[in-house]
Write the structure tokens for this entry.
Amino acid sequence: MPQDRIDIRIDNGLLVTCDSEDNVIKNGWIAVQHNEIVMIGKTGSEAKPDASDIIDAEGGIVMPGLINTHTHLPMSLFRGLADDLPLMEWLNNHIFPREATHINPESVYMATLLSCAEMLLSGTTTCCDGYFYEDSVAEAVRQTGMRAVLGHGVIDYPAPGIDNPDQNVAHALAFTEKWMGRTDLIIPSIFCHSAYTCSENTLKKAKAAADQNQLLFQIHAAETAGEKETMLSNHGVTPLQYLDRIGVLDENTLIVHGVWMDAMDIKIVSTRKAKISHCPESNMKLGSGIAPVQEQLNAGITVGIGTDSCASNNDLDMLSEIDCAAKLQKVKYLDPTILDAKTVLKMATIDGAGAIGIDHLTGSLEPGKQADMIIVDIKKPHMIPMYNPFSHLVYSARGSDVRDVMVAGRMLMRNRKLLTIDMNAVAASEYFMTD
């Protein structure tokens, strides 16, 4: 127990810890010193430490911050640009051309600030990103105080900031070396777009570069039926079987989407201990399909939840995402017991942290973990009455119900007011003018 006055104490909360025992503490409190949780208790059961700042949760739910395991932060620039289109038409005819003309370090910086504001306002404290000009992404994320795993993009075509594709992995490696250990809140990563936009040589080089420093390697895979058919035609195997054959699947690999996975694919991913980021709303909007999440979980695979980008979602609200994730699986399997509320909430917290390799730092409320947490207001009409906090968080709560946000012991939002982002200045940026 701390001997001196601690920094922050949160009182009068319904603590949903998302720890290994799924503890829920009514009328609980949490003590924070510097960037860590140092004590958790129940009012009346033990003495509370004195604190310099006391935050009254007013009976609200105090829980770990949400973890968005896949997004492209700068693509908030393209929110609503080209809706209701198939993936390849959307990419080739709209997104890739727009990126060529509208993506630069300054636009990436401002769009990242916009995305971070949206995530904080809806309770996300950590995200896993992959894009280009990732140095600008990192600078913006650092300003906001969020936690992030940030992947520099790799693709075998000229890309924003990379005119010569032969230098794609070199650019990614330079980014990781620059940001490795620069700040405790940002962990660099390498993100290959896909096996259909990166050659076997590029995939192997990128994975080797990530492995040099035991960094997360991210890749879109098995997203659409067309992708699977193309891989079968060109290589005689499914996308996951191909990635396994070339040796890029292991415990430090994050597979994004994983929609079109058969039993053999699931077995391979489980055996290799690779992780999956499930992005249900993007998969729905692009008509990609419904991922076999319950089968993936049954195989022991760690699965997190991601929103994907604002260009294919069109928001970054993780509470909306988990509601969708739970309901879609029930429809897929025609079973209302599939992917219950507690399971899907942990996918957005502790399992999401595990999917991107930081569950030793965050994802649950436990002494010794980083003080990444949110307070959810339960006094709204749609939150009354509350029989089960897990069910309420998944099926009733909205991003706008998040009242306070803390990352590493620092308040980033208090009483719905962002403390590290000037939203008026961001909204006024020329980069968001559509005329």
Q: What stands out?
A: The mean pLDDT is 96. Residues 66-355 form a domain with the TIM Barrel fold (CATH 3.20.20.140). The chain has 15 helices and 17 strands.
